């Protein structure tokens, strides 16, 4: 019995060695995720200067429109106000402009193509939280161009008719039967807008949607 186990062990070791030294080895699948980054160096001093305190105010309302379950917009759909959503404000520096153009040209989430903003650039931001009416305020702003972004989560609810079967009468006529059912789907909208403060002490109003 011991001899049999010993022989099996030898065979297993020899088999493993054969796999390592095989003539044909299946390569590992390459990672299909593509990541793009701006080539320009981020200027932290410029960003810090743009976010220094001023006397202008940015006031806005954040909302989205209810979409079809397949993702496209629905005409005359009601507004969904951004309740307790964080609005991020970033200064539009040359680095940011390159990032935004790169994202517009290259990013495709379905194809796993992403454009990243550096951690250093993201640190130079301001944040505001909306109220239940979707309103938000950024006080003490300086003249300049800024980018606003928020992620709005909501649940899409609706009804549809589900086919349940067919019936036939004595004359050969067919009747299809349907049952009304409800559905719900979680939606996440990335809402963005550029805003420009042209002079001190002005109040700039914006709709973030």
UniProtKB/TrEMBL annotation:
<keyword id="KW-0732">Signal</keyword>
<protein>
    <recommendedName>
        <fullName>Carboxypeptidase regulatory-like domain-containing protein</fullName>
    </recommendedName>
</protein>
<feature type="signal peptide">
    <location>
        <begin position="1"/>
        <end position="22"/>
    </location>
</feature>
């Amino acid at each position: 019995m011991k001899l049999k186990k010993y022989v099996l062990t030898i065979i297993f070791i020899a088999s493993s060695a054969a796999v390592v030294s095989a003539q044909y080895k299946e390569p590992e699948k390459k990672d299909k995720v593509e990541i793009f980054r701006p080539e320009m160096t981020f200027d932290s001093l410029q960003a810090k200067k743009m976010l220094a305190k001023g006397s202008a105010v940015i006031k806005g309302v954040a909302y989205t429109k209810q979409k079809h379950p397949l993702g496209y917009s629905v005409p005359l759909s009601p507004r969904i106000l951004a309740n307790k959503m964080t609005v991020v404000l970033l200064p539009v520096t040359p680095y940011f402009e390159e990032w935004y153009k790169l994202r517009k040209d290259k990013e495709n989430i379905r194809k796993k193509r992403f454009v990243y903003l550096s951690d250093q650039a993201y640190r130079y931001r301001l944040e505001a939280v909306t109220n239940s009416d979707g309103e938000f305020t950024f006080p003490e702003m300086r003249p300049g161009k800024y980018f606003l972004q928020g992620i709005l989560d909501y649940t899409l609810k609706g009804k549809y008719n589900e086919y349940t079967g067919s019936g036939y009468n004595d004359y050969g006529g067919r009747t299809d039967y349907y049952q009304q059912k409800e559905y719900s789907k979680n939606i996440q909208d990335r809402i963005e807008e550029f805003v420009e403060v042209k002079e001190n002490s002005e109040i700039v109003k914006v709709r973030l949607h």
